[in-house]
Amino acid sequence: MKLVCPICGKTHDEPVQRCECGEPVEFERFTGEPYIGKSVWERFWDFWPVEPALEFSLGEGDTPLVKSGLGEELGVKLYLKNETVNPTWSFKDRGTFLAMSHALKAGYKTVGTVSTGNMAASVSAYASRFGLKAKILVSESASDEKLKAVSVYGGEVIRVHGDYGRLYFESLKLGERLGVYFMNSDNPFRIEGYKGIAFEIAEEISPDYVLIPTSSGGLFRGIAKGFIELHESGLIDDLPTLIAVQAEGCSPICRAFKEGKAKIERFENPKTIAKAIANPYPPSGNAVLRLMRDFGWSCVSVSDGEILEAQRKLAGEGLFVQPASATGIAALERLDLPRGAKVVSILTGSGLKTLKSAPQGGIKECPLEMLESCLR
Amino acid sequence: MKLVCPICGKTHDEPVQRCECGEPVEFERFTGEPYIGKSVWERFWDFWPVEPALEFSLGEGDTPLVKSGLGEELGVKLYLKNETVNPTWSFKDRGTFLAMSHALKAGYKTVGTVSTGNMAASVSAYASRFGLKAKILVSESASDEKLKAVSVYGGEVIRVHGDYGRLYFESLKLGERLGVYFMNSDNPFRIEGYKGIAFEIAEEISPDYVLIPTSSGGLFRGIAKGFIELHESGLIDDLPTLIAVQAEGCSPICRAFKEGKAKIERFENPKTIAKAIANPYPPSGNAVLRLMRDFGWSCVSVSDGEILEAQRKLAGEGLFVQPASATGIAALERLDLPRGAKVVSILTGSGLKTLKSAPQGGIKECPLEMLESCLR
User: Which residues does the record list as N6-(pyridoxal phosphate)lysine (modified residue) (chains A, B) (predicted)?
Assistant: First the structure.
């Protein structure tokens, strides 16, 4: 299977991660047919670039698509794809599992990633599961407390002092030299793993719109490729409209999209409560712009106030998500979608990961003797 | 469907929660056959005491059964039932969903529970999802921080000052008078919901042993009833041996079991890191004792040191659990199980819920310019 650069079109026979032009490469499109199977890996066996190492699976994927009443006021049929119930409680596990399957097969003994949040925990967990060593490079601002949920799995956590954006590219370069397989946010195997979200949605409904919290752009590219491959395989009739959602305080992709540019520019002084999508210079930004232009898709940015309100509304549906994961619902109000449209919003990660920033509800104090009146 | 007291045998036509003798009642045994369906609720449709309100489901249940290498040294085939990937990240959601389905159907407007942890979050979440009000009664020692993950869903949190054990029974009494449906740890509908764990295990393997972290005893009773009903329905050939696991620092059931007593006694000065199973006077304790005696099952208690070591081992398998959830693996080393035995350990709740008590791994500091040597 060849890798191809979605921007300059150059093909690569070697398993590179990025093209000479600087853009992330991706696998050529797969076509195939579905099978009967318990896991999404088995049901869509034709569509993966490496054989999934099922003996090491933690049961990632196959997450619930939950019907929500939150679209009723707006007249749309809303579904929530709950990725917070993955093994490390974010969508990252799908991509990590597939990239790890490749690393194992290719003979690597050590893997790595650059992340301070969901992806760090995911790579740390799956490396241990696969019996590989992990080097987790985190930014200097990452707190010890936050890193507990990463180091607990056994991965080596390295806090790197210096420009975090440069670290991404340095890690790929050094990794290649040192034989450490870095599976960063737009690693081509990782992107393939995210296709499962599209496959599972298509098994249940034919969505008109899919709202995708977007930071590096890897998740957006994976879901896009999944739907495109289903379409090219004749398994779905129509492509849904994909909408990238960013936080206003860090929206390099939406800004470039609105200005009609082909390339993103670094977003200076990013500031948002949605930390998990606060990448000021997303490595897959140009690839996402290209997809939006080619398919007539779009980008919406939302304020922190709207994000918090959406987070609260989702909790009222029984789903507690991190702020980044609420952006899709925040975007819903900004979009003027046709009545009756079927809309899926991707809930990317668990609210337990950002418990500190969660709203503190009121607590009533009550002596046991007064319980009856407290309950009335 | 009648309710019956597992201790005195009295049957009840009314939907009471406890027998006059003080023990928790349970539904008579169901028999039936399995169907094709996406959710465990649909596949085992014959086995529920109330029609599951699927339109309000959050996708609870249908959790992965993960093959683990941790049994290899001991010569057993170990499987981990990962309940940490439920909608509020613990097994409680299965019982809450079914009890909530009953409350809705029975016309209640308000539900309640007594808990400071997993069950509190679960009831708060599902009450919002079902459009019901929730009164969550927590102990005076519950910290504001911990209660964030409960109040975020919208349930009213009431911190009750007084004896926590008495609160359990007071809540049931007052709830009946005030029309608040309390779904505490051994509510009969809640117990029925836990049967799904047994059903799903039986769909994949025929276990010889099932290790169950045990506090109130509700989970143990539910899993037991599930396997017994499968057996009586002719769907499995043999009952597995169920083993209740408690923390040494709070093991009222194991103590009574070892002493050959029919009734548990309050465990004075409980002290364990496994807070989620630290109930000193478990309301289903006698019912669990009875099951163990009737079926030749048993009880094992483990030390905090063993629990922490087991938590670390599980993280090395990619599964980060709360201390209480690691007790099954801790027990494995104490038991002398026959070689080749198929063993399932239930992982009850996510480690993110007890992040503060998680071990702090070492963090290496590294300037970006030195990255190469840091990675070597």
Answer: 92
Q: What is the CATH number of domain A65-89+189-354?
A: 3.40.50.1100
Q: Do the chains contact at B153 and A320, CB–CB below 8 Å?
A: yes
Per-residue pLDDT of chain B (376 residues; tens, 9 = 90+): 799 999 999 999 998 999 999 999 999 999 999 999 999 999 999 999 999 999 999 999 999 999 999 999 899 999 999 999 999 999 999 999 999 999 999 999 999 999 979 999 999 999 999 999 999 999 888 888 789 999 999 999 999 998 888 899 999 999 999 999 999 999 999 999 999 999 999 999 999 999 999 999 999 999 999 999 999 999 999 999 999 999 999 999 999 999 999 999 999 999 999 999 999 999 999 999 999 999 999 999 999 999 999 999 999 999 999 999 999 999 998 999 999 999 999 999 999 999 888 877 889 999 999 999 999 8
| Domain B65-90+189-354 shares a fold with domain B91-182 | yes
Domain coordinates in residue numbering, chain A: 65-89+189-354, 91-182
Phi-psi region of B187 (alpha: psi -120 to 50; beta: other; left: phi over 0): beta
Is some CB atom of chain B closer than 8 A to the CB atom of A175? yes
To the nearest whole Å, the CA of B138 is away from the closest chain A CA by: 10
For A64, the closest of B59, B128, B175 (CB atoms) is B59
Nearest CB to B367; choose among A135, A162, A361 = A162
Whether domain B65-90+189-354 has CATH 3.40.50.1100: yes
**Does A36 lie at the interface with B, CB-CB under 8 angstroms?**
no
Transcribe B203-249 into DSSP letters: HH---SEEEEE-SSSHHHHHHHHHHHHHHHTTS-SSPPEEEEEEETT
- Interface pTM, i.e. ipTM: 0.96
Q: Which among A58, A174, A360 has CB closest to B372?
A: A174
Shortest CA distance from B154: residue in chain A: A316
Q: CA-to-CA distance for A375 and B4, rounded, in angstroms? A: 29
A355 and chain B: CB distance < 8 Å anywhere? Answer: yes
Which CATH code fits A91-182?
3.40.50.1100
